[in-house]
Task: structure prediction
Amino acid sequence: MTDRTAGRNDCGLAWFKSSFSSSSNGEDCVEVAGTPTAIHVRDSKDTRQPHMAVAPAAWAVFVASC
Result:
């Protein structure tokens, strides 16, 4: 993941768009924010919706499988 153009939300997380979530529609993206204890993932089309969080080890396994 490389595109660090997204901003911060009310939780103070530094979100960035995933380079793995490209499509023909530039608005279809997943955004990610990392903390020492969790990787937070949200839909960039509606950032007001709840996001999910996974353990860093689980995220590492997911990214390695892509």
Q: What stands out?
A: The radius of gyration is 12 Å. Confidence is low (pLDDT under 50) at residues 1-9.
